Amino acid sequence: MEKAKIFIDGSEGTTGLRIHERFAGRDDIELLTISKELRKEKKERARLINQSDITFLCLPDDAAKESVSLIENDKVRVIDTSTAHRTCEGWAYGFPELSEVHRKQIREGERVAVPGCHATGFISLVYPLVSSGMLSRDYPVSAFSLTGYSGGGKKMIAEYESSGRLPELDSPREYALSQKHKHLKEMKAVTGLNREPLFSPIVADYYSGMVVTLPLYNDYLKGSPSPERLCRFFEEYYEGEPFIKVMPFGGEGKGMMAGNACAGWDGLRIFVTGNEERVTLHAQFDNLGKGASGAAIQCLNLMLGCEESRGLSL
Questions:
Q1: In 3D, which of 30, 151, 177 has the Cα closest to residue 81?
Q2: What is the DSSP string of 40-66?
Q3: Segment 115-154, tens digit of pLDDT
């Protein structure tokens, strides 16, 4: 069997490095590499992109757009981990568990955009509710997200891991206070909401893992479902999906939800907590796993027609 030629444009970044690590031991991949001296040279990048079967883009948005413009070989397929193409026409959204349409578009797609980490958690909870009609598109949705500092990339990792770091890094910090977080656009577009949600992300002093939480009033949902019924709803929606695990109603442990509980794992866990009047839905996963490189490899596996979980930790 001929090996698929894979190039990672932006292999030195956090996501690129994690994608590279996940190819260890795979005999169906031929990894095209670029020397450190030439990794920013347009001509060399273009040569390798056009030589590949599939290119991963692990770059800032503008650089990702430039890389797409370098494609001359119409057989080259692209998996973009940046924000650049997530709501663009002609790009498949890389979250196969949402529907069979999403999975088919990824499997057959020439251009696939990997979801953002916060967006992954949010969409895993909101998309099923909206698509089923249980949650109105007009509902004034709000959400918050707790994440490890690796989500901020190399610069933030260096800040948190430096010996002389600022005291404020010892404490969780809210950010994106202007309500202009870069994931809001896909949160609205993919779920079908009429407005962008109110969204408050929080970064804390641990490396990886995250929890996205969605609070809801039961009586604003169609049929005023109990929290137990909501839990069954998600179990039925994601039945047979190995990457999505719906947990028993009420959470686990001592009434706490840890941000780092899924670090190193490539799946996503959904919890329903609360009572008959108010519920909170939680998506717990690794921002570097299902929230980034793990999702990218899952999309690759679909595009190659091999086992969806190959090379991943479930």
A1: 151
A2: T-HHHHHHHHHH-SEEEE-S-HHHHHH
A3: 999 999 999 999 999 999 999 999 999 999 999 999 998 9
Sign of CA dihedral 85, 87, 90, 95: positive
User: Among residues 216, 277, 218, 270, which one has the least CA distance to residue 245?
Assistant: 270
**Are 279 and 230 spatial neighbours (Cβ–Cβ below 8 Å)?**
yes
pLDDT tens-place string over residues 199-209: 999 999 999 99
SS3 category, 204: strand
Catalytic, 88? Answer no
Q: For 232-246, what is the mean pLDDT? A: 98
Q: How far apart are CA 56 and CA 8, in angstroms?
A: 5
Q: At what angle do helices 61-69 and 42-51 cross, to 10 degrees?
A: 60
Round to whole Å and give the CA distance between 181 and 143: 12
Q: Is the dihedral of CA 24, 60, 261, 127 positive or negative?
A: negative
Structure tokens at 255: 């009434």
Q: Which of 58, 88, 117, 231 is catalytic?
A: 117
Q: How many whole angstroms separate alpha carbon 27 and alpha carbon 15? A: 22
